[in-house]
Amino acid sequence: QACEALWEDVTDLASSATTVDPILETEQITGRTFVSNQFTGPNALFAYTDDDGETWISASASPPNGGADHQTIGVGPYPSDFNFGITEDYAVYFCSQTLSAGAFFARSDTGGASFRPGVPVRTPQECGTAGGIHGHLQVAPDGTAYLPLRTCTKPDGSSSQAISVSTDAGLTWEVRYIPGTEAAQKDPAVGIASDGTMYACYEAPDHSAHAVVSTDRGVTWSKDYN
Predict the structure, then answer these.
(1) What is the rounded (10 degree) CA torsion for 134, 194, 53, 112?
(2) In degrees to the nearest 10, what's the CA dihedral of 85, 88, 89, 95?
(3) Which one, of 95, 70, 73, lies nearest residue 187 by Cα?
(4) What is the pTM of this model?
(5) pLDDT per residue as tens digits for the range 68-92
(6) Which residue in 25, 51, 105, 179 has a CA-CA distance of 20 to 30 Å to 10?
(7) If you ran DSSP here, which 8-state letter would residue 64 be given?
(8) Sheet of 222-225, strand order
(9) Of 171, 177, 118, which is closest to residue 149 (Cα–Cα)?
(10) Which residues of 135-153 are buried (b: 16+ CB within 10 A; e: fewer)?
């Protein structure tokens, strides 16, 4: 049974200006909690706490080529074969969408204290140049990063929803289309099971909610259900 809950305001004043698209994420092993509010253009107010909001440390997740809004934070392990002398146990990922060039991704190897320059998670050849709004980034137990995309214009001119996948801690990304989908009004989402199975939820052409499953990082899909 749940006990009576006590809620306290532990807002970080430095990163709590009235902005767009507030987001929060907690790393499940250490308990470090990250908060971000998109301010203006690529400027994201960003901070993290190790003591449930008693104290906050301000950081910067605003690469010069970052996005305008709709940011997302993801945390998770590095891929097992990723070895660049990094001492952190987990990576912190930050993505935000741009109005004309899709979405940009940045990775922190310092627990969220600083971020590398942003890189695009989709190319015009894969998705066109419009429709940058995306869902929330998730990291699988094996370190694979997934970012669901609401709309892509495929090379043949048709539209599709997709998942952008990175198996090298965000150095490169590959767009994998979800069969039977079209550009949608609502954001898709992904969830990752402990064995790496990926579940994607998306808005079908008739506006109903669908779920579909992939066991190979989005290369193939099965079990599409309304």
Answers:
(1) -60
(2) -100
(3) 70
(4) 0.87
(5) 667 888 999 999 887 777 778 889 9
(6) 105
(7) T
(8) 189-192, 198-203, 209-214, 222-225
(9) 177
(10) bbbbbbebbbbbbbbbbbb
